[in-house]
Design a protein that fits this description.
Strand content: 25-35%
Distance between the termini: 34 Å
Helix content: 25-40%
Number of helices: 11
CATH architecture of the domain at 197-357: 2-Layer Sandwich
Structural class: alpha+beta
Largest sheet: 5 strands, mixed
Radius of gyration: 24 Å
Shape: globular
CATH class of the domain at 197-357: Alpha Beta
Length: 441
């Protein structure tokens, strides 16, 4: 098994940490060769709050994935979420020196790098710069400007910003667990890659990923990402409410939620009762399912209303921004009974539960297509894409060198071209993060 064909997605969540190893099969689908998961103890609301515990959990997940697959993990693609993430819109342009040549990748890269120089608030850093539409000279609404003529290249960007310290803490955990960080990706983007179809992205869709600590939102329209947001509460606040409301311990509350929980309070009769064993010889507690679903309903409603507010802010109610494909729910929290009906009732939009099986090989394990693995599958896809790009660049570089070698036998004085392997800003950022971490040791 060739190692370079393999990628690893590492989802550092609030409830669990998942390491997923996979490769592409001959049909270009993803074959998962190993998966490891560990309880996440050092992460609160998507942000690392205890470095030591997070490192241990990462190591545990990675060890498990390695022993299942027999592959040694070297580098990983990591997801980032948390309440410190915000997104903004920005437009920028470059004037090209030579308007007689067609626009190529390099021009777009120059434009993206220019956006990366934006001055952020102190302590913030740009995570993604995602071009939306381009404008060449005065022609607007261009999706793919490569190959066109024009002197001025302009674009609208969706810029995702996060806190430097949070990003560095994640980098620190990954590095201390003995791994290399190949890329950091925004979690809602990863989940979207795993569960949304191209048609949905064209028609307009909102992906809601309900995790343990955060609820992530990504909105697509006309095939382009339009809005992202991270809302700082998820399934764990529901468990907390059950714990408080029924005076039971967290473990019992979590089990109650999973086994008997429903987001729709009308479902249960007054007579349906669950008996919970008391602690250390105390009397068992009796809880009516109607009460349980009232508690859950109140909290879920709050989460959905928060998300719906973001969807309205994006402009879902305008004719141009209408999300025809409605809502796709994913993440562990989306498995709550009757959640889909409640979401449709509150938002008036169609909803479905998103399973990340769109890109997985047909003979994959059933468990892998659970919505709670959506982010891990998306990160794995990101890693495989990146691996393929790197490979293409290296091949292009080698052929270029060979051609140059065959053309001129005398060694060239300045050999600028082949070494100019284009680095995305992100790679530069990851490298600067690595340097920073190396120096911090």
């Amino acid at each position: 098994m060739e190692d370079n064909k393999i990628a690893v997605g590492l989802d550092i969540g609030t409830t669990k940490i998942v390491a997923m190893i996979g490769r592409k099969n001959e049909y270009n689908k993803i074959e998962v060769v190993g998966i490891g998961k560990a309880k996440s103890l050092g992460v609160k609301r998507g942000v690392v709050s205890n470095i030591t515990q997070t490192i241990q959990s990462i190591q545990q997940a990675v060890d498990e994935a390695e022993s299942v697959s027999g592959v040694k993990i070297a580098e990983v693609v990591v997801g980032i979420a948390g309440q410190h993430i915000r997104s903004l819109h920005h437009s920028d342009y470059i004037t090209r020196n030579n308007a007689d040549e067609v626009i190529d990748e390099e021009d777009i890269e120059n434009l993206v790098n220019q956006v990366h120089k934006l001055v952020m608030l102190p302590g913030e850093e740009i995570i993604h710069v995602l071009p939306q539409e381009f404008k060449v000279d005065s022609q607007a609404d261009i999706k793919e400007p490569i190959g066109m003529y024009g002197g001025r290249l302009e674009a609208n960007f969706h810029v995702v910003v996060g806190q430097v310290s949070s990003i560095r803490n994640i980098g620190r955990c990954v590095k201390s667990a003995g791994l290399d960080l190949s890329e950091i990706t925004l979690e809602p983007l990863a989940s979207a890659a795993a569960v949304l179809s191209q048609e949905e992205k064209e028609a307009g869709v909102a992906l809601i990923d309900i995790g343990g600590g955060t609820t992530d939102l990504a909105i697509f329209k006309d095939g382009i990402i339009r809005h992202t947001a991270v809302i700082p509460f998820g399934g764990n606040v529901i468990t907390d409410d059950i714990k408080e409301g029924c005076s039971i311990i967290e473990k019992q509350a979590e089990l109650l939620k999973i086994k008997f929980g429903s987001a729709w309070p009308g479902e249960n009769k007054e007579t349906e009762i669950v008996s919970i064993p008391g602690l250390r010889g105390r009397e068992p507690k009796e809880i009516t399912l109607k009460n349980l679903s009232k508690i859950i309903h109140a909290r879920v409603q709050e989460i959905i209303e928060h998300v719906y507010l973001e969807i309205k802010n994006y402009g879902h109610e305008t004719a141009k921004g209408k999300l025809i494909a409605g809502i796709v729910l994913t993440g562990g929290g989306s498995q709550l009974n009757h959640l889909r009906q409640l979401v449709e009732y509150i938002t008036g939009m169609d909803a479905r539960i998103g399973f990340p099986n769109e890109h997985l090989a047909g003979d994959s394990d059933e468990g892998l297509s659970s919505p709670s693995y959506a982010t891990a599958v998306g990160l794995l896809m990101e890693g495989l894409e990146k691996g393929m790009k790197d490979e293409e660049e290296t091949l292009a570089q080698i052929t270029e060198e060979q051609q140059e070698g065959s053309e001129q036998k005398t060694p060239p004085v300045i050999e600028e071209k082949p070494t100019l392997k284009k680095k995305s800003f992100f790679e530069k950022f990851t490298e600067s993060l690595k340097d920073f971490l190396d120096n911090a040791e």
